[in-house]
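Replying to the earlier thread about multi-chain prediction with a worked example.

Input:
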Amino acid sequence: MFLAGGTNLLDLMKLEIETPTHLVDVQDLKLDAIEETTEGGLRIGALATNTAVAADARIRRDYSVLTRAIVAGASGQLRNKATTAGNLLQRTRCPYFYDTNMPCNKRKPGSGCAALGGYSRQLAVIGSSDQCIATYPGDMAVALRVLDAAVETVKADGTARTIPIAEFHRLPGTQPQRDNSLERGELITAVTLPRPIGGRHFYHKVRDRASYAFALVSVAAVLQKDGSGRVAFGGVAHKPWRVEAAEAALPLGAPAVAAQVFADAQPTEDNKFKISLAERTLASVIAQARS
Amino acid sequence: MEFNAPAGTNLFDKSRIVGKPTPRIDGPLKTTGTAPYAYERHDVAPNQAYGYVVGAAISKGRIVSMDLSEARSAPGVIAIVAAPETQPLGKARSNIAPLFGGDEIAHYHQAIACVVAETFEQARSAAGLIRTVYGREEGAFDLAAAAPAAGLAKGRGGKPDRKLRGDFEAAFAVAPVKLDAQYTTPDETHAMMEPHATIAAWHGDQLTLWTSNQMIDWAKSSMAQILDMKPENVRIDSPFIGGGFGGKLFIRSDAVMAALGAKAAGRPVKVTLQRPLVVNNTTHRHATIQRLRIGAERDGRITAIAHENWSGNLYGSEGEDGTLQTPKLYSGENRLTANYVAALDLPEGNAMRAPGEAVGHLALEAAMDELAELLDMDPVELRIRNEPQSVPGTPDKKFSDRNLVRCLRDGAERFGWSRRATKPGQVRDGRWLVGMGVAAGYRGGPVQKSGARVRLETDGRITVETDMTDIGTGSYTIIAQTAAETMGVPLEQVTVKLGDSRFPASAGSGGQWGAASSTAGTYAACVSLRRAIGEKLGFNGDTATFADSRIHLSNRTIPLTDAGSMAAEDQITFGEFKREYDVGTYAAHFCEVGVDVFTGETRIRRMLAVCDAGRILNPLSARSQVIGGMVMATGAALMEELAVDKRFGFFVNHDLAGYEVPVHADIPHQEVVFLETEDPIASPLKAKGVGELGICGPGAALANALYNATGVRVRDYPITLDKYLDELPDLATI
Amino acid sequence: MAGSAGYGLSRRGVLAASAASAAFTAVPLSAHSATRKREPGAVPVSFEVNGQHVELSLDTRTTLLDALREHLKLTGTKKGCDHGQCGACTVLVNGVRINSCLSLAVQHEGDEVTTIEGLGTPDRLHPMQAAFIKHDGYQCGYCTPGQICSAVAVLKEIEAGIPSHVQADVTSRPEPSNIEFRERMSGNLCRCGAYSNIAEAIAEVAGAKA
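Result:
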């Protein structure tokens, strides 16, 4: 298993949720550059820290939804250590995943899901399965999703590939132990951003305290003057949640978008509030864009 | 010294040091990382090994088998102490379940083993190799389900805890204005920043524990009870404690596992509870259900008030009594309070900062706000209208010194209360709905006997030794101030040594009694020393003036150093006369919040506390105590909740990511005002504590401000946005 | 309660009895029994701590935090949670603040580590330490070293123009303001609730610098 910033992996290893027999420290692979691509976008090295990415002048200017998402996450200390690749690979914060005494199909396939029928306030309202209702906890990837970023990797046999961010994180289905589409031994080398798309960039993260907490719901949005735009939601599913088809409704307002985005939602009694919260948070973002 | 009559004019009325804002004398140590906390005492015992505690994976049942073979042969392992191989230990003060031993599991994460190894990493790794087979039994984990069948708690003298005055039911029935509302508060955890930790070392049958404990004398006797040994063979040392809030009042499993581990390993062992274990292994504040019924005349006078409270605990042991402040705060002829406790199989509930009152105010003071609205009356005025002349629940008792009305009026003036919109949901500031709230606060001002030893050194330095603890409360400094004032030396000339059971027993840190009691004990010892110096040098130590490191007599002045090296020990005890009085501390809390009209996010804009707690010994650290209480009250009102899994019977969010406490971003500048009052009934220094006063009321002021902002009343704490989101203005209307 | 089927709650614990209230599917434990653990062994590592070169031989599992506290006996850096949830372990590595609990010591070969002991001593306080004392920016003292290390770094981060969540416009330079301090300090929990005073201590140092 690869070790970079370690801010999630070491946490999980101490609890024996992750028990790798070998760790390969990849910190010195010099993959921390942020460079312009020939297509007019940016290539962010896998090992660029969250702080470095958020502070990059080009990202602040052209992709500020990404800066905003990163600085809404974790703490200054963690962002100084956490890397771009590691952030994509964050595991869920489901409390049953974190307690090794509890059944969890993600941690121990086939053992059951204690979150079903349990404490699920923070957990997924859409895209979940009867095996797992965990959420992907990160913020950065939600912004990457609206930016149509891509993840560049190299496999153990040396072949490289590019995975669209939409296909990077998975839904739990019958294999909740698999968070993403990486193969065994496959290493993320970079994240690429296409050409800037202009517009006003927003990342609104709602949580129970004002900072240093995982999202109840977050909204990443890039909105254009004509009312069109893109929007993705965090804190609601096993992956950043974006329904491109619903974006056509953005000029009509948040309820029209949310109705489509969450049409197939299957919330629990504890977390059904996330659907109206997502709608209201998007409404807030749209109101700001119009002001 | 017995404090057996109200304090008259004394040296503290002309004090030069006591009562002045004084930076903490332990500040240079704490800010440079050189103050030693329990787990860090590398110097006290050589060759320390590391213990790692294993917690039970079930909430109720028994251990069928435990396979230690793999763990025992793991690298670096020195010894393993396992519950099935250990007779259940004795139970000490306020331990409900045995801290260790035997097959029975009483609650989730109860300690079942401790692995001792050469390194922390080895101990942790080996702990993961222990294989335990459990037989799980059904348990009761749902307070709401258990409450209807709960019996009355045992009150004073073992009598059922139900108090009646007049005829509540009849008076309530005919009251022209009535409120009947139910409030709930969740289980909470202390979440002190330093997890419970202990280093244990044996020398023959002598046990020393370098630990983190608020009550040294209790710890010493408890440890002796638990291990069935003589108290004189136990030494406890806790000079610095990384927060307690009630969670370190009692010996817990860290101390027991370190002691047993050290015995098994034959060398000193250090143990800290890993953070994810703290919540379920140790104690927590119990959840409550509280019903308030208040009947009033149309002019606001309360004629009937009932406060009933339900909580639960392991085996139905002592619960969280939310009614405690209700017999004290407001007048009303016809009264009822009752406190019920259900038997639950969750981990042990016990004291957390202002047990009872902290959550009692969340209910009572929200109810007062609701009553004010029913009466169409200002909530500050409603409280003033019901200011009692004597203690409402026990009218034969007088208040020692009570200035709550001043707190309310002064606070209202300072806060700009008159600008509050009477009708809720009316004030907008951009995207924010803005509201103000008020609450009163009451917390008892008890004292306990407290001892100290004071030494005069040949160079004129004064050293105070007492087993009093400083859990962040500022004990070091107020004790030094007291000794400096009484012995007439500069503060810099005083050394204070705390937390060692070899020192005279003190009141310890709990129940908001520490400051008043330990300074009184220090004063008593200083008075004894002055008398001894007088006897030695031929003057009356009680009438001489000790100042500027000199002794001023009517006809001459003697340098203090002329006395040479001397020591005196004494304790303060408190006489019967206090029983005629209710000694309390009071506050008026004000809060202004903004609520995002779209998302329901809450941001505190301003907070103010106006406090009446007698002489404030050190306004700098006392203010910190109050703002700290306000922060914890903010957590209780807005975010803190141990989530109960009612199937598995445990607190699910058992770490500091899952259990959210307020962070810097949640807390704006906080204002605290202390009225300049003195309480001659309280102590020779006319002082009372403030450490718990600060958490009594601010949460309700915040809840009332939220209501004023939004027009939505949430009676189920914490008031998280999911509970009112759908009642915020419709998106189409924003 | 009855039954001896051995249904797994987890890798470590086995439930001998079935529980009616447990709404989940369980599988036999044996399928997931951990293989016997191997000792990773000690590895040499050297770095600088507070200007002093140190060489250690450490179990690879040792965190930077435990290397400081247990091996170098620099106990000013605190362990509050060991999981990056409290900030008590904050130190500066090559001038940048991190949580030392979530970093392996062996990842720090050649690094320059500054701990609270390296900022100042009781006799020679760092201005931030002095400001914390003056404003009573602490109570129990356990989170304090982490708060102070973080505060020192926060002022540098603002000066360097690192953006924050509370900036209205992330392309602009951040200002040393109360809300910026509070947002940036939010990774350092203080359960005693000294936040209001800490913000004032930082403001004083920031003002002195300006």
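Residues 327 and 393 of chain B are 4 Å apart (CA to CA).

Feel free to reuse this layout for your own posts.
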